[in-house]
């Protein structure tokens, strides 16, 4: 079922806050270094890679004298505003050690919902990859309220995978992959090596909790894998602490959890309608239905 990414094939790697931050806030130098080393290794292997990185809020906490995520939206926005520059500064310096240039790409739901802007975002990412630049994608948490909700960066990574025509989405997290039950509560929890995106076990995992510094959880990773699946893109959910996890995933090795994609993918426009365009509509209930529902 697993297969290696071809030479020249593109990869999207997503790293969450829990893998980049220290327990009391701020960036973990070792976590950042591991993420950079993995992405740089993929580029050196001939697979242009986009890094979707959380961590702006966590990076801003120390400067604000905080040790945990603010409970209010303005506080989160302030932390993101302070932290985004610090996060990019750290990435730029780390990648520069390998003579690699990075570029910041901040996206929002509004941008992705607007078809022309969606296409311009795709063209910008294409041009960055063509220049050999590592695009570092994050949500613009400073100005968009909805983007600070549960797990948007996981879903964003799936959308970016479609935008750049990736052959693989790798989600690096603080566990070894997806488990059949909560490993924090069950010492014998089974690591799922490979699943189909339609498997019922994934439905049972849609109740995961976010960590204290992150905004995602198991549920958002399952949702992201299913989104990528409709693009015909497989997903590997693997441990960020393993120095070679991304490379192993790209080489088709048995690491983490492999989520097999749909056998055929939706067209580009249908994918945008499904995942880039917010759902909207109305339900009209006539008098007979009101009577049936109420009485």
Give a verbal description of the structure:
- Helices cover 42% and strands 14% of the residues.
- It contains twelve helices and eight strands.
- The protein has helices spanning 17-20, 29-44, 56-60, 73-96, 109-113, 115-130, 152-163, 200-204, 218-230, 245-250, 268-276, 287-294, and strands at residues 11-15, 49-53, 102-107, 134-139, 168-173, 194-196, 235-239, 257-260.
- The radius of gyration is 19 Å and the shape is globular.
- It starts with 10 loop residues before the first strand and ends with a helix.
Which properties best describe this structure?
single chain; 295 residues; alpha/beta; 8-stranded mixed sheet; 12 helices; 8 strands
> How many β-strands, per DSSP?
8
Count of helical stretches: 12
Order of helices and strands: EHHEHHEHHEHEEHHEHEHH
Beta content: 5-15%
The main β sheet shows up as:
8 strands, mixed
Report helical residue fraction.
40-55%
Q: Uncertain runs with pLDDT below 50, 5 residues or more? A: 208-215
Oligomer: single chain
- Which word captures the global form? globular
Rg, alpha carbons: 19 Å
Distance between the termini: 53 Å
Strand order of the largest sheet: 3-4-2-1-5-7-8-6
Indicate the structural class. Answer: alpha/beta
- Mean pLDDT rating: 86
What topology emerges from the helices and strands here?
Layout: E1 11-15, H1 17-20, H2 29-44, E2 49-53, H3 56-60, H4 73-96, E3 102-107, H5 109-113, H6 115-130, E4 134-139, H7 152-163, E5 168-173, E6 194-196, H8 200-204, H9 218-230, E7 235-239, H10 245-250, E8 257-260, H11 268-276, H12 287-294
Parallel strand pairs: 1-2, 1-5, 2-4, 3-4, 5-7, 6-8
Antiparallel strand pairs: 7-8
